[in-house]
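Notes from hallway chat w/ T.B., transcribed later so I don't forget. T.B. wanted the structure written out for a chain they're using in a teaching module, and asked if we could keep both sequence and structure tokens in one place. Agreed to drop them here.
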Amino acid sequence: MPAAKPNRKAAARKRRLVETIAALTALEFGPKQRNETAAYTLLALLDLQPHAKWADAQAPLCGITPVIDFITTAYGVRYAPNTRETIRDDAVKFFVEEGLVLRNPDDPNRPTNSGNTVYQIEPTALVLLRSVGTPDWTPALRQYLASRENLKHEITRKRALARVPVTLPDGSQVALSPGGQNPLIKAIIEHFCPAFAPGGVVLYIGDTENKFVHLETAGLAALGVTLDSAAKIPDVIVHHTAKNWLLLIEAVTSVGPVDGKRRKELKDLFAGCKAGLVFVTAFENRRTMQTFISHIAWESEVWIAEAPDHMIHFNGERFLGPYPDVIAKC
């Protein structure tokens, strides 16, 4: 008799998996988003054990690692730590895109790449999924699918409110993902550029959510520059047209100043540039700068957002300009 217990547990797990895949199919997810991994991920986000009723589904805030841990404990399926990206990219990302799951509902300003990112079942979807296996499921599903586009639009609208609007020198706007270094990037564009590169053209802005959120391919090409998506591109690239300088700016809140190694990397990456290269590290405040002060490369500049009208030049031979080793050869 005792041997039957593991069999009942395995049967419950299998039954719940089949039910979940069927629910994802009814929700019109494609084959890759209704496979076993996606189903287990949804069950983790619902905190739903094999023997529990669908009506008992919950909506905890849950990161990817807790999802993996839940699947292992509740369903006996082990995912290695290096499968975090697989679960995020093959399941959670699509759930978020379709409005089934919310990302960082507790803090919309949390950076996209934050290690503290959490996910939660959207409230309307939770009500629907609690009806799986009941007479209410079919009419509730029909109503949910009919209203899903409006639901997704509302979720997108709320996300947009958390984004960081940036006004470029030409008056156009770019919206960056919330948090992280993006408020500093906003300060670079809106305060540094007018003060130290008046009339300059912003050719590139990087974002953790979209590496090429702003890219002026033609402007870069005219300077002999082509950006490879695999390259480690500086956060902001500005062409100071009046002096024909290309300002390569790193926005630093926790990592990534222009140290000696990074200066050489940038010099090599922009070796064919027809403009002189200027290397700039931007910080939010002096306290952050103090953490990195010993690493800042000579022949580079430092700008601090809390004192936007001032620049710190590392050497003193000249102020804000390219050195002979990075002046364009005519």
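Follow-up for T.B.: Residues 140 and 221 are 54 Å apart (CA to CA). Might be a good example for the class.
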